[in-house]
Amino acid sequence: MTSLMTNPGAGPAARAGRREWTALGVLMLPLLLVSMDISVLYFAIPSIAADLRPGATEQLWILDMYGFVLAGLLITMGALGDRVGRRRLLLGGAALFGLASVAAAYAHSPGTLIAARALLGVAGACLMPSTLALIRTLFHDPAQRAKAVTLWTAVMASGISFGPVVSGALLEHFWWGSVFLLNLPAMALLLVLGPLLLPESKGAGGGRFDLVSALLSLAALLPLIHGIKELAKDGWAPVPALGVTGGLVLVLVFVRRQARLVHPMVDLGLVRTRAYGGSVLVNLLAMVATVGFAVFLTQYLQSVLGQSPFEAALWSLVPTGGVLVAAPVAAVLARRVDRAYVMGGGFLAAAGGFAWLAGVDRATPLWVVLVGGGVYAAGLVSAMTLANELALGAAPPERAGSAAAVLESGQELGGALGMAVLGSVGAAVYSAAMPSSAPAAARETLGGALGFPGPVLDVARSAFVEAMGGAAVAASLLMLVAAAVSVASLRGVRG
After folding, report:
1. Would you list the DSSP string of 86-125?
2. What digits encode the pLDDT tens for the residues 290-336?
3. Could you give the CA distance from residue 104 to residue 198 in angstroms, rounded to a whole number?
4. Of 104, 155, 146, which is closest to residue 128 (Cα–Cα)?
């Protein structure tokens, strides 16, 4: 049937038709690739290091530059899309993503590759909030929008998991630049089909774009997220601690400026509502557990069980099977039961999955670990899907871009906090479990113990499993808090 979505006057319950669902499929292409690019270099780094010979700092920036720029520009690009048009920003981001992918694939120096990764981050920041905001435009019917957001969340989560697998498969047959050239066909398809299927949408009367606020948001988020990740990786140090402090100060300056503006980049009134603000908060808590524990699970598969990186990436896909079933079921339940209880149930399931993993030891079969991973992943993604849908429904259509960007920025911040909080818990348990007679490098990390095969490495692997259990306990407790927050803040709330 012909959709009424292009005609707002047709009523708020107008249902999307085949055109809108086809458009949604087109939107999933850039979303999948943007999320994959976060993790696609995990296997390519050894080949890049052999070819370009980057220094240790350059290698870190090759890995991290994309994520940092993406996180820092999400709010800016979400607000820009509300003003210039989300489809226009999406297509511009797709073109830039394709050009930057070519530049990255054929980079002949570490500096060139770092610059290309930065451009990919800029393009990704154009694409991500636009995809979610356009869902708000395409699907006005709440039930249909719930299905669309379920798909968006599943694709987003799957892309991060698929990144290492796809890069590993490509590197079996091609050079490292092929992991970037994979982006080109999808971006070309988006540039062709986007103008035909996607309606243009933007806010009315949003005022001029506030460049000062854009610079403030970038200056606040970049040092904040970078500092948190550095503290999680290397422990306390003055420079990252100063970055976190400076970032928090600039966040306060940014918030004060938004409160005074007639047309703010971030609608603080929307953030203070239970439907939107509560959803952003529980999403952040979910990402703390998701990203924070993923580091332990990946290292467990490789450094404890001895799997190759590609084998570990394949096994890590197994828990996503539960996600593909649980997320749609949760969306159906939310139409019959208060979504706050369904979200709370999802977080309780995640807490149970983490608690299951807290009992893992060296003798535990792999299938037991994968079941626990599947349970917590299914619970988390189910809750996050409902939170995303509620937040998107609570945002007025003219603010959909900035609302999506704030939601995604909260997820990025949650990921950085997860690495810091759960990483600190795991590090403390690991250090306490290692004997004082072990070499200093082995007492610090399992990676440091890999250079001491034999009894030292065996003890370190046992200590790491204990550390993973400690992180699982912390994640389980955090999910109990998230369940309580969901019920307390979102009960009875409708988007």
Report:
1. HHHHHHHHHHHHHHHHHHHHT--SHHHHHHHHHHHHHHHH
2. 888 887 888 888 888 888 777 877 887 888 777 777 878 887 887 88
3. 29
4. 155
